[in-house]
Design brief:
Blueprint (H helix, E strand, L loop, with lengths): L3 E7 L2 E7 L5 H8 L18 E4 L2 E4 L12 E3 L1 H4 L7 H8 L9 H14 L5 H8 L10 H22 L1
Parallel strand pairs: 1-5
Antiparallel strand pairs: 1-2, 3-4, 3-5
Helix pairs in contact: 3-6, 4-5, 4-6, 5-6
Length: about 160
């Protein structure tokens, strides 16, 4: 078993890590980088709790062998949070009561971030499709869908405020 050196840009910072063959992006983030906001759930790509952005696309990090993404950009929930407080997506989830136990929340928020990066004005159907790979066992989905749509309004308003 020959280990590989993988270079990634994680949350804007260049990182190099030595990984064993078959190490998943999830394991590299949690165990090599200490980024535990990305949750370990089913480890089969079915629950969405490990959702991150990989070069701007939402992926289930438990399904990505890290040695296959050398030189990629990875964004996790830790990178979404600005130093001055919560990201508008996080605010929408908290204020909309879209979090219960919180286990699925980081994956839901990252799926929302991926959606809004591509589509800043999503429909309800877009929101449903964006979170369709993420399982929540506590809230049902209405509060989460509402939070995704509220997040879109908040992100758009924040962008408008910066442009002014």
């Amino acid at each position: 078993m020959k280990h590989a050196v993988v270079s990634l840009t994680v949350n804007g910072a260049e990182r190099q890590m030595l990984v064993a063959p078959g190490t998943t992006l999830l394991d590299a983030l949690r165990e090599n980088q200490g980024l535990t906001g990305t949750r370990r759930g089913c480890e089969q790509g079915a629950c969405g709790s490990c959702t991150v952005l990989l070069d701007g696309r939402t992926v289930m990090s438990c399904m990505v062998p890290v040695e296959t993404i050398d030189e990629a950009r990875v964004d996790t929930i830790e990178g979404l949070t600005p130093p001055q407080g919560l990201h508008p997506i996080q605010e929408a989830f908290l204020e909309g009561f879209a979090t219960q136990c919180g286990f699925c929340t980081s994956g839901m928020i990252m799926a929302t971030a991926g959606l809004l990066a591509k589509n800043p004005d999503p429909t309800r159907e877009d929101a449903v499709r964006a979170i369709s790979g993420n399982v929540c066992r506590c809230t049902g989905y209405e509060a989460i869908i509402d939070a995704v749509l509220d997040a879109a309004r908040r992100v758009s308003a924040a962008g408008s405020a910066r442009a002014a």
